[in-house]
Amino acid sequence: MGVGVVSVVGTAPAKASVAAEGHQTAYANAVSDPFSDTFADPSVIRGRDGWWYAYATSDPLRAGDAPGAMHMARTKDWSSWEYLGTVFTSANRPAWATARAGLWAPDIRYVAGRYVLYFTVTDTTLNPGDDSAIGAATAPTPSGPWTPAPAPVVPPRPAPGGGFLWTFDPAGFTDVDGQRYLYYGSYFGGLWATRVSADGLTRVGGATQVAIDNRYEGSFVVRHGDWYYLMGSAANCCAGPTTGYSVFAGRSKSPLGPFVDAEGTSLLTSRVGGTIVLTQNGNRFVGAGHHAVVTDSEGRDFIAYHAIDRHHPWLTEPFGINRRPMLLDRLDWVDGWPRTRAGAGPSDTPQPAPSLDSGLGITPTDPAAAGFRGLAAGPVDPVGGDTAVVRGTASTVEPAPAGALHVRLDHQGTEPLRLLLGRDPAVKVTLDPRAGSLTAQVDDGGAVRSSSTALPAVVAGAWRTLTVEATAEGLTAEVTESDLADASARVRVDGAVQPHSAPVRLSSSGARVDNVVVNPAARDASALVPVPQAGALLSTEEFDDPSLAGFTWVRRNPAATVSDGSLNWPVEGKDLVGGGNDAGVLLHDAPGDGDWIAEARTRLDV
Description:
The chain is mainly β and 606 residues long. It has strands spanning 2-11, 26-27, 43-46, 52-56, 69-75, 81-88, 103-111, 114-121, 133-139, 147-148, 171-174, 180-186, 190-196, 203-211, 217-224, 227-234, 246-252, 275-278, 285-295, 301-309, 326-334, 337-340, 351-352, 372-377, 388-396, 405-412, 417-421, 426-432, 437-444, 447-454, 463-471, 474-480, 489-494, 505-520, 534-541, 551-555, 561-563, 566-568, 585-588, 596-603.
């Protein structure tokens, strides 16, 4: 490879556009700093009790600590946290995991009335050698107690030529027909998907490869509109300050693919596709990846992920455990693709936090307490706490504002529930467990538009979440268990639906509800942030001095030479990770304070 001229120029950083945020509080990255030094491979779910629950891999929580068997914590505002301990101890560790096995990369779901946590086991008792597998544990609450399944959901997979494929990084998903899926895999073997049973604990049928090997890990799947998005992380997660870990996406009309990027390139081809979702932007955070996606009470999506502060990259001594705290940022949908802060990437300034609140004076975690007329107090739920019962019709005391609305509530039982919004047009959404249907209807002066779909059954006592959004694009109603962009039933009525101001009404003969919120619907950014542009020239290197004055070798590569105005450096099949690595490294001082771009003219013979 030949490098010609290297120039350093000043730049003005791109600014992320922010929609109106209303009453939200603020947080700052890294969000896990109040209780931990590292919180890698995060998974997040909204609990029935009005808390966000977060889970992380089995690194030490703080420098000097022993590793923990996957960590748990919860928050309401993403600034103040309660650490809840580890998922496993010696008393409940999976019996089929060896004593030396790592327990990595948790993925939390609410499945069939209980919480299911998928995780990686790096070494099992089933075979000699490192034979990774996917395990699962169940619990009645998001904080446990956790009971591991007696066998892997995905067992070790022998690799051609010996050894075992990397069966890492699970991610659950439920489709709109109620079918459940599990995604898993890593660089050695690629990403795969398999159907799983209704309880989420048993594979059903064979597996389908969804991304080529040696490219992605840390998969996460969401449905947005009519598309399924497979997101995965690429590069080395754990290379300290040299990491380039980033998140990419492909989409498909099927949860089993084929997934293609925004250019139409498949995630299964050798020159693999992938549209950038999240990547470093020049601030202190690098290696941003292995993520989860959550949605707040205004319908705004957020991406939770880990990253490395390049100024403090190590939990222990250099080349030891990477310090990978959890970060959080807004996830915008721009031109049909997920983009972190509209392409601006990780934030390191205060940002509006995900909302758990409701407008109209409603107390989400105790809906009968305030904000409604005619809503009766229900029995106390062992997980969610206070609930409400709808008998007849209950109305909000205050009218909902005109325009785009986002309504969310948890529903339990077999009694049908009707939700009515606005007037001119009037919106009615009916969740009917007895008939097994979800129906959305818009009545605009007698012109009725409607859509209906099957509603999968749930086990007795299970909760499910109904989300309704009325916007200028249409009316959408979804039912989900986990509320992780994985609806088990979804209907849509196209055409503008922005009702005039009116109370929100709930009608039933005894349905139980909880976590009721009514808010103006969030707005995504309409365009990507501008790409930073080069400014005034700060310095330049013409490579006309063979001594490379101004540069410093960390490890000299004797094959690298300067001639004819170029630095000629043969490509090395090496890495920059580990104390024993001998890849060549050449440094030059940064230009000082301020933002800058380094540019080089290169020639690569391929």
